[in-house]
Structures are given as C-alpha cells and as structure tokens.
Amino acid sequence: MSNGTLVAGVGNVFLGDDAFGVEVARRLAEQPLPAGVRVEDFGIRGVHLAYELLNGYDALILVDAAPRGGEAGTVYVIEADLDSAAAADAQQHPAAPGALLDAHDLSPDAVLALLKSLGGEVGRIHVVGCEPERVAEHMGLSEPVSDAVEEAVRAVRSLLNREERT
Q1: What is the distance between the alpha carbons of residues 48 and 69, in angstroms, rounded to a whole number?
Q2: Please, what sign has the CA dihedral across residues 30, 32, 33, 38?
Q3: Backbone torsions φ then ψ of 114, nearest 5 degrees
Q4: Which of 30, 23, 28 is nearest to 5 (CA)?
Q5: Does 50 map to a domain?
Q6: How far apart, in whole angstroms, are the C-alpha atoms of residue 166 and residue 130?
Q7: Residues of the signal sequence (predicted)?
Q8: What's the CA gap between 73 and 11, in Å, rounded?
Q9: pLDDT the model gives residue 85
C-alpha cells in the first residue's frame, strides 16, 4: 500500500442528517491538504468506495452520520479495522445464498466487508461520525449536525496530521 490517505464522505443528501459525511468532504475539498491525501464525496456509492479502496490506501478516514445514542451533533472519532467491520456486518446482515447487493444502501461496515471479500486491504481505518438528529426524507442538515461540521473538519485534519507522522 502506498496511495496515501483517502478521506471518504458518505451519506444520502436526500435524507437530512445522513448527508453529514458529504458536507464534511465538500468543505475539506475546498482546503489545502497534505500531499498524498485524496478527499472524495462517495455519497451512496458504497460499491465504488470499496473498489476505490482496492487501489491500496495506507489509511482511510470515513466520514458519516453515526447514530450511537448520543446527543445530536456529537462528533465521534472511532478507530476501526477491516476484520472487525466485516464481522460486524456479517452479524447484522447474514448473507443468504444468492442474495443481491444493494449498491445504494451499504453501511460503512458493509463497504469494508465487501472490500475484504474482494481481497482488498487498507492500512488504518478511522471513522469520523456525527450523531444525527433526523434521518428522514429532507434536504439539509439539522442545526446541531450543521454546527458539528467544522468540528468534524478539525477532527479529520487532526487525523491527517497524525497520519503524516506515521
């Protein structure tokens, strides 16, 4: 692996706070970033993200809405690994023989499980998530989630600085 760090914003812009990762990626893409960092808005294209990761990145920073039971707008930084994510997805969504893959509805765990099933690897995995207030058909982030975008941008930049030193 030697393709640097991929910052992947994911989420559905038509589902309110689910667009958190997309907005953070948009803001980061407007800023100067360290060499070797690629920022991309993958939206709901989880399969494309899995295939992009097959290019072999040293690190992945995945930015997404992350319902964990906290207060809306709470930003989480979560360390993850490919094996744990794939196991979590298998537990939540046991595959039936011949099951179809919904390319527009892949959770981060499912994307990483797909990557693993394709024989791919990624060095370090970080998730920068935000507790959503509302994930329903609606355009735009709720106020607490919108207010958390800059905090998430700072968290991603901090992780990038740490990756540069690694």
Answers
A1: 29
A2: positive
A3: -65, -45
A4: 28
A5: yes
A6: 26
A7: none
A8: 16
A9: 55
Asked whether residue 58 is domain-assigned, the answer is: yes
How confident is the model at residue 107, as a pLDDT? 76
Q: How many domains does the chain have?
A: 1
Q: Would you state the pLDDT for residue 100?
A: 37
Q: Which domain holds residue 25?
A: 5-92+102-165
Per the CB < 8 A criterion, the answer to whether 47 and 114 are in contact is: yes
**Identity at 113, one-letter amino acid code:** A
Flag whether 97 is in a domain: no
Residue 134 φ/ψ, nearest 5 degrees: -145, 120
Which pLDDT belongs to residue 105?
A: 54
Residue pair 123/19 in contact (Cβ under 8 Å)? The answer is no
**Coil, strand or helix: which one is 151?**
helix
pLDDT tens digits, one per residue of 97-145: 333 344 445 677 888 888 888 898 888 999 999 999 999 999 999 999 9
Interatomic CA distance for residues 153 and 7, integer angstroms: 11
Which stretches of the chain score pLDDT less than 70? 1-2, 82, 84-106
What tokens does 134 get?
Answer: 């509302």
Q: What does pTM read for this prediction? A: 0.86
